[in-house]
Specification:
The complex is a heterodimer. Chain A is mainly alpha-helical. Chain A has one domain. Helix content of chain A is 76%, strand content 0%. Chain A is built from seven helices and no strands. In chain A, α1 runs antiparallel to α4 and α2 runs parallel beside α6. The longest helix of chain A has 29 residues. Chain A is globular, with a radius of gyration of 18 Å. By secondary structure, chain B is an all-alpha fold. Chain B folds into two domains: 259 residues, no CATH class; 215 residues, no CATH class. Chain B is 76% helix and 1% strand. Chain B has a two-stranded antiparallel sheet. The radius of gyration of chain B is 21 Å and the shape is globular. The relative contact order of chain B is 0.09. The chains are: A mainly alpha, B mainly alpha.
Amino acid sequence: MINILLITFLITLFYVAIANRLLTYVKVIALQGVLLFAIVFIQLNEINPLNLILILLETIFFKSIAVPVFLAYVIKRNKITREAEPYVSNFMSLIIVTLICVTTILLVNSIKDKELDKIFFVVALSALFTGVYFIISRRKIITHVMGYLIIENGVFILSLAVGSEMTMLVNIGIMLDIFVSVLVLGIFVNRIGDTFEAMNVDNLSNLKD
Amino acid sequence: MFIYYLISIVLLGLLTWLNRNKGLRILLLVLFLSVQTAITIYSFYHLNQQDAGNNFSYDSLGVIFLTVLTILSYTTVFHSYLFLESRQDSSRNQSLYFAALIILIGAMTCVYLASTIGIMWVLIEVTTLSVAVLIYHDRTHLSLEATWKYVFICSIGITFAFVGIIFLSKALQEAGSVNLAFKEIPNHLQNVNTFWLKLAFIFMLVGFSTKMGLFPMHTIAVDAHTVAPPPISAFISTTLMNVGFIAIFRTYSLMAHSSILPWMNHILIWCGCLSLVVSTAYLLKVNHLKRMFAYSSLEHMGLAAIGLASGGIGYFATILHMVLHSFVKASVFYQIDQVHRVFNTYIIKKTGGYFKKNLTGALVFLLVFVSITAMPPSGMFVSEFLIFRSLFESHHIMVFILVLLLLTLIIWALGKNIFSMLFLPGPDSEVTTFKPINPWESATQFILLVAAIYIGLNPPAGFVELINDAVMLLPK
């Protein structure tokens, strides 16, 4: 079951690579939040109310409700055109994401570790690098924030793969940090929208020597 | 005790933000400075003790940099006040500025003293967010661009650092430990898969170098310097870089006893050399005063990375270098505020004849030139000399030659620009429409520069003991 969910997550990455509209990106990010919740829920050994609330808050409430709603609000407020306008064609994007995926599979297969949960690592690292690729290849500033969110989701899966036991305090801290940084990034997107005509990164190249 | 410190910082930050009264603001700032001083003094009396549920500890490394931070927070608050008064900012902007400053200083204090890697990570992100408010103070196109880049790239960098932490905990898991406290980790890293450790180190180095301003991620710090208010530049270049340095130093010392030590040294040497090459290349063509000193910070961070990698006396020299660099670089940026008030620009070519216009400020710059290029009376001469000695002792002759060549070029580039500003007549040297600057405003800079010289040439015994204690766990 977990494998199916993880592969679905991987497919969403491909879907983003060829998606045209910004709202599709937002929806995919919301879907990823739900998938993450399902994965964590199945992986839980014991149901601990406090833990469950924290996970619910982090995945369902934060990743698939609060952030997508906020992103949709930012898009609407700044009247951003609904196309994503990438630098490269969708076909090339698809090929590049596939290449990233293949490379991570090869990389993970080269690790000599018996206890390694390979599929987790493949999906997590693919999400990480795909997120970076989206940031590089998209022109709109709002898509950069979305790339950042995809990276965050990849990191989330990675931390599940390792099963690292961070203390409660750290967990809450991480959650708050990400939440606040998305909020701050959103505020700055709004500012950029107010300041410049079009919200492209091309506007942000005045600082140089 | 530390819990009370945290609560009072949050409260003071909140009150400063809400308050619009000028007198009350000064009172709150004085209160904040006394709280900051109190925690510093407290940390000296409780060296190597845990606090706040084992999440923070007053270890030597943290205490050294906490002291530097506390000293610089006095001067930064003072110069921020002068800066805001000279520009006659609105009361609302001043409140926001000082509130963000208080939170920033509090977050940096926590990073220095954090005793587990997770807490440190969370608080480093807090420093990014609070300094973003300060960088954006001018509300112009350029400051918007710089702030956006800073927040965005720092957030991604910090995420990469978190990936590194995940790999580290994977390695620890194999050793049967889940404890991520700095004290516990080295005990479990003897027989783990080095592949995980290498991955962890690379990711954490790249992530934390956004803060330290080392080679792969140095651009955002430079851009932030261009637009940030000068007193904040002083912080970005000194205490905030110390935050990155502490994170990298702690990561390094965690893994220093595993078998990847030579490999880590190799990576750090590369990082340092590339930082030096990049900073030299840009220093030769730079024309913006603040960017020039930002690249000079990049140079010094490169030297610190090289010192750390070469080991032996290099560990001691690196920490000394970071402390001295903090004092010198902070005074540079305080002085740059005066330069801007005189010339109303940061472009070096449009300045000139500073000696005639502001004698004390020009003297500061002369002293800064001597200090920052590490000429003999300066304290940094000692630390750089020790770094070179450790390079020599660890048989990095080629690196040594490269570093010396690049440093020569850097001295030439800095000298050319600083002396043209001090002595050459400017393009419009006749126009003098600036308010004369009170010589006493330069007093803090003289104090910091003289302190840097004194500490370098004749380090107090207690200070040496602290540094030795901080590097005690590293391999000899």
